Amino acid sequence: MGPHAPLLSPSGTDRRIRYMISKGGSEALLQTLVDTARTASPDYDVLLPLLRLLAKVGLRDKKFGQKALELEALDVTLILARKNLSHSQNLLHCLWALRVFASSVTTGAMLGINGAMELLFKVITPYTQKRTRIIRAATEVLAVLLKSSNRRAVNRGYVTSLLRLHQDWHHHDSTNTYVLTRRALLLCLRHVANLRSGREAFLAAQGMEILFSTSQNCLDDRNLEPVISIVIQILRQCYPKSPLPLVTASSAYAFPVPGSIPSEPPCVLTEEDFEDDADEEVDKDSDSEDMKEQDDDLETDVNKLSSKPGLDRPEEELMQYEAMCLELSCSFEELESKSGDDLNFEETPDAKHYHIPTATSPKQHCLTKDQSSWGPDRKDMVQTSLLSMVKMGRSTMHPTSKRGPGMNAYQNMQSNGLGIDSSGKDIPDSQAFLKQDAWDIDMISCPMMSASFSNSARPTETVEVIDKLLQTHPKHIPFHDPFLYMAKARRTRSVADFKRMAFPDLWGHRPPLSPQSVLERKCGVQRIKIFEDVRRLIQPSDVINKVVFSLDEPWPLQDTTSDCLRFSSKFESGNLRKAIQVREREYDLLVNADVNSSQHQQWFYFWVSGMRAGVPYRFNIINCEKPNSQFNYGMQPTLYSVKEALLGRPTWIRMGYEICYYKNHYRQSAAIMGGTSEKCFYTLTFVVTFPHNEDACYLAYHYPYTYTALLTHLDILEKSVNPKQVYFRQDVLCQTLGGNLCPLVTITATPESNSADHLKQFRQRPYQVITARVHPGESNASWVMKGALEFLVSSDPVARLLRENFIFKIIPMLNPDGVINGNHRCSLRGEDLNRQWLSPRAHLQPTIYHAKGLLHYLRSVGRSPGVFCDFHGHSQKKNVFLYGCSIKETLWQAESSVGTSTLLEDVGYRTLPKLLDKLAPAFTMSSCSFLVEKSRASTARVVVWREMGVSRSYTMESSYCGCNQGPYQGLQFGTSELEEMGAVFCLGLLILELKSVGCSHQLLTRAATLLDVDEEALDHHLQRCSSSSSVTSELDDEPPCMEEIDYSTDSSADPEGSFSELDRQIQECAFHEDEGGEEEEGPGQGRKAIP
């Protein structure tokens, strides 16, 4: 073997070379190169191994380029290359060295100045089967060189040359033998496209048309993957950036609010010269807290972490909350007289008032027995306690549902037959109803909430139709009453003054019998969609581009005679701003920004009708904001069919296929954003096949849960309980800015009697506080809350124990206005209310102000909650998990110099999540975090922990998608799984108490009696819950997405950034040379330079 064989051999290469670099080896080798090359007759027996070694060393020496520049090795190597243009082996070695030199920005720019680019274009020829190794190596050097010398290539007109070379090699390489050469040529174009002038030159040279035509028939060819991936990136880079097709960036809805908020005047969006964003995007407003936390965001100031700030209001103000805690003072007779109270608009002061009275009102529509599944009259429905279901460990409650991505999810339900609901009951009235062609499906599917129907063309007939519909309503939808819902809806106040109700909210939802599988992503679906976007640009005559719905247009746009779909979002929680028909069955959709904001477009909920059954319709929501989404990892939107509901299957299902989520070409300028960088948008695209002709369907981001649904649910819950056993009281926390009431619910067990002992025990029960839905788009949080509420009032023995030992204070919806008006994240002031807990103000953030005030009051009377938990939804991770607060873990993660050994901290904050990891099929401890970030200092979790001293203060995040672990692995969440999580969370609170040091023997005995187990078995179960589980490996948020979301030009995953292939080539060459098997690529190739 040659003299450099030990360094060139694979074994120990890195270690040996790095040691050599540390001892000045790079400089020595470079100096040897310069000295040898400058001799009168260079010895290539020395130079070739030396160049190979320099290439390998240069890959591992970060300062190699600067060293080469200082020692004049760049010029020497260029001279050698020029001398050996006809000598392939010598030239190949020079190109390897030049490739390493070019990887440094400084040396790359210097090579460009010294004519390296012109040299390379002499080597890179149109298609040939000769000297292909040389041509490939030269294109790879050029690709690296153009990272720093792309402007020079543009100025010298090389963009057109590169496109011609690409076309020539593409058309002639029919056997795909030279894919890597073609890929290198495309990499050259991609680096040129980093410049605005490069993109302009590319477009002027018909680059979009050329790449589109050469690649559109190769998308499915796996052999061409290295080429197609770069083509896609170039097309995305060079697609002209444009503003969204909206008249203004601000929300279509405006609401006058008190106080000064950053004004956002209606800025007309105009075509501008948009530059590509340079920095990787971060989802700045995500409350998911799941992004790789930057260590500099961790709070390392121990004083801030451990300080307990004082009261943020006069202490006398706290007395107003005494009226919300009547359980601490009232006698049993007074409590009993409150049973059945209802919320009342007229008797509630506005948000500025401090006194908040208990509301009273007449009773509402009565509840039938069939509507209560957990109430005391339905004990037969509770076969076993929730605890017994998890005694033997987690168990799936539903069989796994496997369904192909293109199948209609309604097919399984339809197997029951027309007019048969999923429980087997005949629905004759609905069946007959559907056969009457005279009925107006549009009117039925989005009915007016007013009894007068004054705007209807056939008012009397309309009332009769709605009445007839409601008579057919299935009575076995638990905790739902359409009559009560309609009455509540009339009193719900919206910014747009909605007059109609969404049919699913009025009619109700019954979960499917089994959960749906995570959708298997179809390979290549994203690149096909991107090519369709490019086709629109280069073939605009094929695009209809007809606006069919818009909140911004004052005149009606719906053409009932045309073949296009009809849209609406003018109902509670609805969000669709504009619909544009692109092709016959393809629509671009834009969602509305949050009220008084120009941001937070993500939640959607809209009505669509006029479809044909079995025909695929594509929807592209083109102004989403988040940089990534679970829609790329198996999540589907939700769909509700009105005709299916009338046939006895009133169910929200996951629907849609060919789903992907990617960065598009729309931008919002920095001037409009009021910031320093422009805003990017993302497209969510999916295909839906509807189950019926001329149906009316609703599509939503997630299972909707409206404010009116909450009020209806609470009233029915209150009427379902036996007040002699369950103490259920509704109070009004406050009135919102929009004039809606924020309910506060108290649940505990009614004392056995009004004796002094019983009342004392009643009043001394510890508190647990649960809140939800501060972010309106996180409707999954409401379904979890629904499950918790229903379980707490149920006859389950666990629920009974919970009521007997705790007082639950529950605020089910912290942001009613946002929910009502279809916001994704904010209040009517355009504020994220979960960033207002530090210093809320009563007239600006009333729900947060009074929620915090209630917690301060409980603390002031010595009744701080044992657990505070705020329910949220999560858009970028799977499963359910908790975020808590820990000083030690935060300092340890930040590698703070402050010693944590002297800090005292109760580690009990970890107990509840550990219990839930044992109990809840959807929960995973591995995703939990207990870090305190500076950016989260004003969230409920951190403020309650820091200011109220609640060590078990949590945010519970539920995925919009589903699970990638446990019994529900591979399944999307349905409402059943979310409600189950709410119930199991409550179970976790009980076991947390039973396991606590202060748990009384009396409680353990009572628990054993109610749960029908002996104390020893109960103790064994509790020990099992607390025992350390098998080591849970950390779950990645997601595996890498098949296709890049935003096509960043500097992606760390870009294989061109890795020189492992160059290492391999060098090693192979060294082996052939030592074996005497030097490859000859052309005639007359010698080892001596041309003189």
From TrEMBL:
GO terms classed as biological process: proteolysis
Domain Peptidase M14: 703-993
Amino acid composition bias (Acidic residues), ranges on this chain: 273-300, 1034-1047
Keywords: Carboxypeptidase, Cytoplasm, Hydrolase, Metal-binding, Metalloprotease, Protease, Zinc
Gene3D superfamilies linked: 2.60.40.3120, Leucine-rich Repeat Variant (1.25.10.10), Zn peptidases (3.40.630.10)
Biased composition (Basic and acidic residues): 1061-1074
Active-site positions on this chain: 957
Source taxon at top rank: Eukaryota
Region feature (Disordered): 273-315, 1028-1091
Catalyzed reactions: (L-glutamyl)(n+1)-gamma-L-glutamyl-L-glutamyl-[protein] + H2O = (L-glutamyl)(n)-gamma-L-glutamyl-L-glutamyl-[protein] + L-glutamate; C-terminal L-alpha-aminoacyl-L-glutamyl-L-glutamyl-[tubulin] + H2O = C-terminal L-alpha-aminoacyl-L-glutamyl-[tubulin] + L-glutamate
Cofactor requirements of the protein: Zn(2+)
Family the entry assigns: Belongs to the peptidase M14 family.
Protein's name in the database: tubulin-glutamate carboxypeptidase
Biological source species: Ailuropoda melanoleuca (Giant panda)
Name of the gene: AGBL1
